[in-house]
Amino acid sequence: MRVLVTGANGFLGRHVVGALLARGVEVRAMVRPAAHLGALGWPSSVEVFTADLRTSGELRRAFEDVDVLIHLAAVVSGGEDAQFAGTVAGTERLLDAMAASACRRLVLCSSFSVYDYSATGRILDEDSPLHLVPDVYTRDGYTIAKWWQERVTRRFAETNGWDLTVLRPGFIWGRDHGYLAALGQQFGRYHLVIGPLTRIPMTHVENCADVFALVAADRRARGQTLNVLDGRGERIWTYLSDYMRGSGQPGWRLPVPYWLAISLVRLAYATVFRTASKVPSILIPQRFESRLKPLRFENRRLRETLGWTPPLDYQQCVVRTYGPATPTAAEPSGAGALAVLNSRFNRRNRFSKSS
Amino acid sequence: MLRAALIGAGQIARQHLSCLKTLPGVELAAICDLSPATAEAAAERYCVRAWFTDHWAMLEKIRPDVVHVTTPPTSHFGPAIDSFNAGAHVIVEKPAAPTVEELETLVQRAREAGRHLVEDHNYLFNQAPQEILRWIEIGEFGAVIHVEVLICLDILGPSGFADPNAPHPALTLAGGAIADFLPHLASLAHLFVGPHRTAQTVWTKRKPSPLPFDEFRAVLDAERGTAALCFSASAQPDAFWLRVYGERMQATANLFETRLTFDRPRNVPKPLHPFFSGLEEGKTIRRAALATLLRKFKEPGAYEGLWELLARTYRALADGAVPPLSASHVLEVNRMVEALKPKKRQL
């Protein structure tokens, strides 16, 4: 089986490539022209295809002899229009090329941001409401782009009769990506922790990559939409503590009850900012909720559909994130990688619970 | 009711569409973009009933009175010509055309069709230049001797003009990314000193990037005075300075903000002039700082000039009058732009 991975050198992509290699899958890695690949340590079996989804005219060649597309590429920086052009129009161009090929299987990396947190009750799972038109256009650029990317992909899949799996990861964390938007608001050394006991919908990048590699080959995943979470998630207070310790950035955590914070935001919005057309995200109630609303997050469908359990538990993820540098993508992940990991790092290091 | 349509729903289109939704007597009838999702998203966001991926189909079906061409800089010509042929007026983003010859063709076609071509010289309609013009017109400013226009803008970041992965469309213009800003510099110079007679330019590159140039200087001799124009990608912080020197007054504005200060003769002993000027300038700048902060929360923000230009243009079209930027104005500004472009020996 040959898999084409877009965004292959990105934060998630490089781990997905590693997880696919560990499963013996042939990988064609699509990277942008200016990408630096040296540090990734990919073996020569990884076929690199250089293209930018916004402009490249040769995308059809990327699908030659490809069985599955794992589409991870998205623009996550820049303004709203740049994100839309890169993520959505880029996806259109990619899927136009796929439609002209023999490839019929597609795994899309979507996002939790497509869910409408404001309309969600206590539990957020795959059946929770999504944003609706025109309300979605009041959300931030990343949300609009990911919502539209999923919409476009579903339309292509339906038109062309493709097997589509949509994976919606929560907050993806890992080495150099420990700080999450769910942690609240940082002011220098001070962290305003809004709802300190709220659990974060999170997945470690290596666990998340394991799901993508599994789904690419597993027939049970076809036609499914699955949230990708490692479990119930850590509480913000605990996770932030591990982050500050692990990253060597000490600071002060100031707890603020969620109900108080959202009440203040709603009051400010109703009295001052309602007529304003441009307001900082954190002061718009719906956007505030999508970052911080305390909900229960479920990965039951992922577990029941695929029988998946995360290869790494939280403490191991902490070690992988903040401990010494870990193996490259070419090295096996999952159980094999864990054995390597355990032999390298003492379980009683400063990140483990027993320390 | 004038029916408006837009071709090219990218970044700057947002400002056109937001403004059109506020204009009385204007129906935003259709949006067109090569990307179906981009066109549909813009139509949903601005509650527009029709969207297209083919501008010929849109022109034929919608028959708009006015077409906004907001595609990338080198792709205005085709949609603009087709819009004239369909009987529409055209409001086109700057630069309207990559060469004066193409622009002359557009103007000629507009005349033949009995329609107007308006290029977006938005900064002319910001409050500061308009206020300076008012002082000139009432005779307090005196004749303008010299104007300086200076843009300091970091365009060397990895996204945008200097994106190493996807070449920005503006890089195909002579002068590269800076050429995208020449209409701003030239239109402001033209506003205060008129059409140019001669121009001397310096194009240089200070830092490694995909851009052919990142610094530009020019000195112009024009019909009513002189002008010094400058673009710097390295000078920080970002600013857009406009300085106008008159026989009796001087004006300074930062068009990225709302700051506008005047220095004028005072009825005080000459040694005290700097003191009173400083006091007044400080007071004005404090007020402008607050106004600049508050305008960040509201549209149109820094695009106030574009909104004003569109409002005046639609009023003129509704009344059957000539728009605020005439074809001859657009041609004169673009001839100045042509004179500012790097010469073959500089390329």
User: Based on CA inertia axes, which overall geometry of chain B fits?
Assistant: globular
Q: Find the count of extended strands of chain A (DSSP E, 2+ residues).
A: 14
| Count of distinct strands of chain B | 13
Strand content of chain B: 15-25%
Total tally of structural domains of chain B: 2
What is the averaged pLDDT score of chain B?
Answer: 96
SSE order of chain B, one letter for each helix or strand: EHEHEHEHEHEHEHEEEEEEHHH
- Quaternary form: heterodimer
CATH class categorisation of chain A: Alpha Beta
Helix/strand/pairing category of chain B: alpha/beta
**Which regions of chain A contain 5 or more consecutive residues with pLDDT less than 50?**
329-355
**How many separate structural domains of chain A?**
1
Helix count, DSSP H or I runs of 4 or more residues of chain B: 10
Characterise the protein shown here:
The complex is a heterodimer of chains A (355) and B (347). Chain A has a single domain (2-179, 201-233, 295-344), classed as NAD(P)-binding Rossmann-like Domain (Rossmann fold, 3-Layer(aba) Sandwich), CATH 3.40.50.720. In chain A, 35% of the residues lie in helices and 16% in strands. Chain A has helices at 13-22, 80-99, 141-160, 205-217, 236-247, 258-273, 285-292, 300-306, 314-322, 334-344; strands at 2-6, 26-31, 47-50, 68-71, 105-109, 123-124, 163-169, 171-173, 185-187, 190-194, 202-204, 225-228, 252-256, 296-297. Chain A has a seven-stranded parallel beta sheet, sandwiched between helices. Chain A has a three-stranded mixed beta sheet with strand order 9-10-13. A two-stranded parallel sheet of chain A has the order 6-14. In chain A, helix 1 (13-22) crosses helix 4 (205-217) and helix 2 (80-99) runs parallel beside helix 3. Residues 329-355 of chain A have low confidence and may be disordered. Chain B has 347 residues and is of the alpha/beta class. Chain B has two domains: 2-119, NAD(P)-binding Rossmann-like Domain (Rossmann fold, 3-Layer(aba) Sandwich); 124-304 and 337-346, Dihydrodipicolinate Reductase, domain 2 (2-Layer Sandwich). In chain B, 36% of the residues lie in helices and 22% in strands. Chain B has ten helices and 13 strands. Chain B has helices spanning 13-20, 36-45, 55-62, 77-85, 100-113, 127-137, 182-193, 273-295, 304-319, 327-340, and strands spanning 2-7, 26-32, 50-52, 66-69, 89-92, 117-119, 144-152, 196-204, 215-222, 226-232, 239-246, 250-254, 260-263. In chain B, the strands form two sheets. In chain B, strands 8-9-10-7-11-12-13 form a seven-stranded mixed beta sheet. A six-stranded parallel beta sheet of chain B has the order 3-2-1-4-5-6, sandwiched between helices. In chain B, helix 5 (100-113) links the parallel strand 5 (89-92) and strand 6 (117-119). In chain B, helix 5 (100-113) packs antiparallel against helix 10 (327-340) and helix 7 (182-193) crosses helix 10. In chain B, 46% of the residues are buried.
